[in-house]
């Protein structure tokens, strides 16, 4: 051991062993946390290889989950750790997918029964041996690139606002597959880590619950999407006897359509619609919320999920039920998780078909498919088609005219969604502490949704910026923009096939190489790149123009037109991870030029 490990002299090993023996200790720890390669060498030592019964060497094997992508989806994948319980037994404490699929992942050890005869020789008892079984492999729905985009966008905002935690989830609209689930909690040193699954934590959601209210009143037929509602200009109104509701902002128009109440997030308007529909029987709204699965645990394939809560809606013995129903209509007196909200919005994006969210694609063993998880429909039609159509129009109006107009302005594709800002009173946090929960949930493209995404950020006390439109919507915008460029945007062929024009070109790469090629070909060119290391060349007045490609620290450069060798050289030297699709020159890059870069981010290059 002294020769191999080099940590102690042989005499020191012997001294420690003798001291332990003289004290009468039954066991003596030789080594802890050996790497497997070291363990293989150790078990070939002369004494050790004689076996446990003769050498007395006992080996305890521990498994460890390796996370090659570090922070990415760390908490969703989970962890498996052993601890010694009060009864002295080693027990597992698992979270995330590690907990849900522990029995499949673990496998089991082999066992055999032996009896000892004279001389201490162990004789196997025939028929008692069981062979060891390797654990099965779990393949998740998480897309590493989408997870990276989602986590990077969320982290950037969390560092800016210094909030205690935030979460962002991306779901594939048609299937319910969770493509990304980011959870970031603030640590004492100000950094962020995936310390809890905030996507599953139930809290008062704020205005995003107004979709459930809108669907309920439209489905019941008590209101039409174009009906007018008097909300006043004071920002507060008595919507029922003794029940005063306040809007976050005053409205320019005293009367809004039902669609406008939703788009401009009027608490007064939505509570008046709820009172009109359910004022005589507040408990009736629960029937609709239950159909939207807002009163039951999420069906996602994870264990130990919290259950949503809903304040009592009965009017027996007082008017508390009516008040609770009114507060519930705009996001209070009910607690649901971000995943519940996302599942409901995804159903509307999916034309009323509610899909089960899931994280595991398949189970395999030794490369052989054991089980393939297929998308599961929870409800074929949560509301009438006309109601779904009206709700989608209202969500599009949020972006074009309502509370998300400013944050999502300039997107080259259509988005539908809803902002939410909840004043938090939760556990030790009271309203007086000035803590808010900012949310944006939506889908894109609005006309043919492919992804649905929710972003939720809990603010620090008395934060200057605490609205869903200013905190959560910008994160959604960054995620949506990059996903659209990578996964949604398609090159649709036109009816006219133009002849390729050799006068139109664009190349980029190392400046010395580009100049060398032009000089070898004896092509006259205009050089305005000065002493820059990276340049591009394209036609200007029928002559090649060499222009500089600006490269700045922590800023994404433009690598379009470069060959893969040059692009990798430039990006990897900047500390970026690079994923490549296709062959040829760089045609598309997932991170736009000029974007501020976070450490360890991955950029996807599409070659053509």
Which characteristics define this entry?
608 residues; alpha+beta; Beta-lactamase; four-stranded mixed β-sheet; 18 helices; 28 strands; 29% helix; 23% strand; globular
At CATH level 3, the topology of the largest domain is: Beta-lactamase
Q: In which order are the strands of the major sheet placed?
A: 8-7-6-21-20-19
Average pLDDT figure? 86
The CATH class assignment of the largest domain is: Alpha Beta
Uncertain stretches of 5 or more adjacent residues: 491-500
Question: Care to describe what's here?
Answer:
This protein is α+β, with helices and mostly antiparallel strands. The chain is built from 18 helices and 28 strands. The strands form ten sheets. Strands 8-7-6-21-20-19 form a six-stranded antiparallel β-sheet, sandwiched between helices. Strands 22-24-25-23 form a four-stranded mixed β-sheet. Helix 8 packs antiparallel against helix 16 and helix 9 runs parallel beside helix 11 (267-278). It is globular and about 95 Å long.
